[in-house]
């Protein structure tokens, strides 16, 4: 597609509910990233894929967070048993093969509110 | 790991010039990016520096000094639409997981 597409754009979840957030990266982009952005803060790195391989998941805040990219294109970020502190915007980004100068392009984010 | 610092807020008037500073500490520098983010929207790429010096792109310029761990974004001829958050981000040299690490962002308010 023309840009990084994320769905849903907005999600309200009850505490304890599981949620799944989808990211469709730019066609042909090998690298895919998930970030979490709280209000008034910069994006915080969660995890990184190169094709279907999850090469870095050091930013996932707990074992309730899980991401996958089984066929090397679309990715899903799953949050189990959501808590209020999970309320944030979840940004997906993609880029061509990772090298120092390749720009990372962001989607518009999935806004998660846990009530 | 990295430590990236930038001012929280800045204000300026239309037509003016503003400089947003960013300092960073990293174990293996591999590039610095500036992004613009309007409220409720995705961050959009502005500039990239990997070597020392000034990169100019229209009204926006970005400077890097690797020895000082310092960068700035210079915005000229400010317009109201430049009101946004400006994010400094650093990429570390490494194997896998060379994602961009972002500062907290500088909220710029441009008034008439």
- End-to-end distance of chain B, in Å? 40 Å
Global mean pLDDT of chain A:
93
- Count of DSSP H/I helices of chain A: 0
Q: Helix/strand/pairing class of chain A, anyone?
A: mainly beta
Unreliable spans of chain A: none
Our Rg estimate of chain A from Cα atoms comes to 13 Å
Tell me the greatest interface.
Answer: A-B, 25 and 26 residues
Q: How is the main sheet of chain B built?
A: 6 strands, mixed
Radius of gyration of chain B: 14 Å
List the helices and strands and how they pair.
The complex is a heterodimer of chains A (115) and B (112).
Chain A: E1 5-7, E2 10-13, E3 19-24, E4 31-37, E5 44-50, E6 53-56, E7 65-68, E8 75-79, E9 88-95, E10 105-106, E11 110-114
Parallel strand pairs in A: 2-11
Antiparallel strand pairs in A: 1-3, 3-8, 4-5, 4-9, 5-6, 7-8, 9-10, 9-11
Chain B: E1 3-5, E2 9-13, E3 18-25, E4 29-37, E5 44-49, E6 53-57, E7 60-65, E8 70-75, E9 84-92, E10 100-102, E11 106-111
Parallel strand pairs in B: 2-11
Antiparallel strand pairs in B: 1-3, 3-8, 4-5, 4-9, 6-7, 7-8, 9-10, 9-11
Give your account of this protein's structure:
The complex is a heterodimer of chains A (115) and B (112). The termini of chain A are far apart. In chain A, a hairpin with a 2-residue loop joins strand 5 (44-50) and strand 6. The model of chain A has no long low-confidence stretch (mean pLDDT 93). Chain A contains no helices and 11 strands. Chain A is globular. With 115 residues, chain A is an all-beta fold. In chain A, the strands form 2 sheets. In chain A, strands 2, 4, 5, 6, 9, 10 and 11 form a 7-stranded mixed β-sheet that branches. Chain B is an all-beta fold and 112 residues long. Chain B is built from no helices and 11 strands. Chain B has strands spanning 3-5, 9-13, 18-25, 29-37, 44-49, 53-57, 60-65, 70-75, 84-92, 100-102, 106-111. In chain B, strands 2, 4, 5, 9, 10 and 11 form a 6-stranded mixed β-sheet that branches. Chain B has a 5-stranded antiparallel β-sheet with strand order 1-3-8-7-6, with no helix packed on it. Chain B is globular, with a radius of gyration of 14 Å. The mean pLDDT of chain B is 92. The interface between A and B is medium-sized, with 25 and 26 residues.
């Amino acid at each position: 597609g023309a840009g990084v597409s994320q769905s849903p754009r907005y999600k309200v979840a009850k505490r304890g509910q599981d949620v799944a957030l989808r990211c469709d990266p730019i066609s042909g982009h090998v690298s895919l990233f998930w970030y979490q952005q709280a209000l008034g803060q910069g994006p915080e790195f969660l995890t990184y894929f190169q094709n279907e391989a999850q090469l870095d998941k050091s930013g996932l805040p707990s074992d309730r967070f899980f991401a996958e990219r089984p066929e090397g294109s679309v990715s899903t970020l799953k949050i189990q048993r959501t808590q209020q502190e999970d309320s944030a915007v979840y940004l997906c980004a993609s880029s061509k093969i990772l090298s120092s100068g390749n720009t990372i392009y962001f989607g518009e984010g999935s806004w998660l509110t846990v009530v | 790991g990295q430590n990236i610092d930038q001012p929280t807020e800045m204000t300026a008037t239309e037509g003016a010039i503003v400089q947003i500073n960013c300092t960073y500490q990293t174990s293996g520098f591999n590039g610095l990016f500036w992004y613009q983010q309007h409220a409720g929207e995705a961050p959009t790429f502005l500039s990239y520096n990997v070597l020392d010096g000034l990169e100019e792109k229209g009204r926006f310029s970005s400077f890097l000094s690797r020895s000082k761990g310092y960068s700035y974004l210079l915005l000229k001829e400010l317009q109201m639409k430049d009101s946004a958050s400006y994010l400094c981000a650093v990429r570390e040299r490494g194997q896998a997981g060379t994602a961009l690490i972002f500062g907290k962002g500088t909220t710029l308010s441009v008034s008439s």
